[in-house]
Amino acid sequence: MQRLHDAEAAAREIVARTGGEIRLALPLGLGKPVRLVNALVKLACDDPSIRLAIFTALTLEPPDPGSGMKARFLGPAKDRLFGAYPALLYAELLRRDALPDNITVNEFFLLAGRWLGVAPMQQAYISANYTHARDVLIAQEPNVLAQLVSEQDGSFSLSGNTDISADLFAMRAEGKLDFVAVGEVHPDLPFMQGPGAVLTPEAFHLTLVPEPYELFSAVKRPVDAAAHAIGLHVSRLIADGGTLQIGIGAIGDAVAHALLLRHSGAAPPIQRAAPFDLPAPGGPFEEGLHGVTEMLVGGLLALFEAGVVRREVDGHAIAAGFFVDTRDFYRRLREMPREERARIAMTPVSFTNALYGNEAEKRTARVKARFVNGAMQVSVMGDVMSDTVENGQVVSGVGGQFNFVEQAFALHDARSIITLPATRWSGGKRHSNIRWSVATTTVPRHMRDVVVTEYGIADLRGRSDAETIAALIAIADSAFQDELIDRAQKAGKLPKGFTLPQSARNNWPETVENWLAPYRAELPDFPFGSDFDEIERLLLPALEELSRHAPTLRGKARLLQDALRLPPHPREQEALARMGFDSRYAGGEALALSGALRRVVT
């Protein structure tokens, strides 16, 4: 194994070993060796004779501050929030449509929303289930695999990216693949264990130990009332002694937090006060849960630390394929006692996301499984839209969502739970996420199972179309229920005399707010901590209110009125100063923000 400290020297060595024809496999997300990748891209940009083909997913970038309020909020705090993470040169070139002809980049999963309108990436995106991405990659005959690794006691860990890499290394050991393996060592990566996660130095042709940089930090978003309600509903469906998969984001955090409340006994009083027709709350977890998830998220780690996720299979309480999270998440893993950290097994997604391969053992382990995933929209007949919008623009990707839905139908007593807020804001108006039809389909209606909004739970498995439509309209926002009923009746999918039960006729945002308001102490905006400071946490709901209403003249006028008629927020001047507004010369933007602050004060 050759050990280098200069990324450019490592890149030149790769060019020499491949003859300048580089088919580069890079891990999804955090595992990209940024210094090495940038050095390779720069060499290829400078030398057209080098051909560089990159296959990867989830290129991490902090959000573009842009202009206006977003720039005022994100600009001063960008590095503090997301880490001083070096920009990936190929991503910058793609955004400028300036990638030279001798470099290609294909991704099978995109950072959510970040590549909308970027034609080169939209055209190069490959739609594939996470379990199939490995085979798509192998078909391209990769001759270099480069990855960020952790080093300890003379061994290397693939850390948070065993997802596809562990399988590739195993296949190379079996003589099925041949590639140059390069590890870029990062001191802040936790040394994780698990099947295929730990490798000897002989597994790598090169290791690079460059000047360190901060790992990407995925900033947590606040958990609003709708997300907390969804989390509380989902927590009723999780069976003690069962198996759990949850994803990243506010709803994933809400589900994990609700499970902690359930375990402590704090959730049932909140749940019994719910104004919706729901199953009985669950009790504490006497047997505990076993985690099987493609992504190890902060909420699942918190459940592990609290002893909720503790049911072991082969000595492991969690099996996961990758992680991208906050700096605090990485620190907790690094500082965890080694024997405790070893109970978290980093595995390939061919293990977590599929039943085939050791199927009997997986079936025995994955009892009473609940696979919880998010969606953008759901049709009243149960089609799920999660990754692509009407005009074909890819928001993110299929990832492993379909894999887990498929498992839910293949396993005994397993359920797929799709979560989404009942409405979204766009153009200054609310729109229903429960639709008559959806433009694109991630999960087809013949695999409909459980759907949860803030207004309740729709159990759809084995139901007729009429029963499915009625159940989904019952958890839609009441502003849109009559329109959906009318469409269904005109299409002959609901009886002419159909009426919703009265218990489903009070599905309004204020109903959820009023239900949860007495329990705000138990339902914080950031149940698992935040990198935002106190003033930024104050600003977030105000900026959300501003984004909802400022796009229309009427909405902005009302915000300006509220700035004049409502009492000021106690820390309003600090908030305005943080946004770069001088209170002595406050214009329309600052007044609108003041109105939003005064409107959301609690």
Automatic annotation (TrEMBL):
The keyword Nucleotide-binding does not apply. Residues 328-487 form the Acetyl-CoA hydrolase/transferase C-terminal domain. Signal peptide: none annotated. GO terms for molecular function: acetate CoA-transferase activity; hydrolase activity. InterPro entries: AcetylCoA_hyd_C (IPR026888), AcetylCoA_hyd_C_sf (IPR038460), ActCoA_hydro (IPR046433), NagB/RpiA_transferase-like (IPR037171). SUPFAM superfamilies: NagB/RpiA/CoA transferase-like (SSF100950). Keywords: Hydrolase. It holds the Pfam family AcetylCoA_hyd_C. It comes from Marinovum algicola. One of its GO terms (biological process) is acetate metabolic process. This is Acyl-CoA hydrolase.
